[in-house]
What we know:
The protein contains seven helices and seven strands, in the order βαβαββαββαααβα. Strands 2-5-1-6-7 form a five-stranded parallel beta sheet, sandwiched between helices. The chain has a two-stranded antiparallel sheet with strand order 3-4. With about 180 residues, it is of the alpha/beta class. It has one domain (about 10-170): Rossmann fold (3-Layer(aba) Sandwich). The two termini are about 20 Å apart.
Amino acid sequence: xxxxxxxxxxxxxxxxxxxxxxxxxxxxxxxxxxxxxxxxxxxxxxxxxxxxxxxxxxxxxxxxxxxxxxxxxxxxxxxxxxxxxxxxxxxxxxxxxxxxxxxxxxxxxxxxxxxxxxxxxxxxxxxxxxxxxxxxxxxxxxxxxxxxxxxxxxxxxxxxxxxxxxxxxxxxxxxxxx
Length: 178
């Protein structure tokens, strides 16, 4: 089982409300660093790592144990180099991640993005409230060491570029900082 001390490359978690750009940024980071990109939603759908379908939210209910078992070997690898994208984080083992980035977005921009995706009014309201209260940032801060949790604004292409550069710089300095 790898740790931050034994991993050759860092494992990165990108989290935040739906519509903040997690998948886009995660793919860019993985591509630029030649890391493995693990889009949790896609893994769940493709490998049936869910319990049931929630009609109200129009999505599958994640089976956390199945998911954790499914990605454990990749996350515990001494080579590291995984970029994980998911809107939640509290159930992932702390030892898996060297950096946790929480993407944030103004509620008006988030509302527009979710409406463009065709989210129901109920689902938009739930996600906008989550962003207002900073629930996912709080979850990350409660689940991981404060020094590895970073809050990033993700509202414009310029901010996305800045976030990409910041994450890549931190990843490049991973072994040097230990």
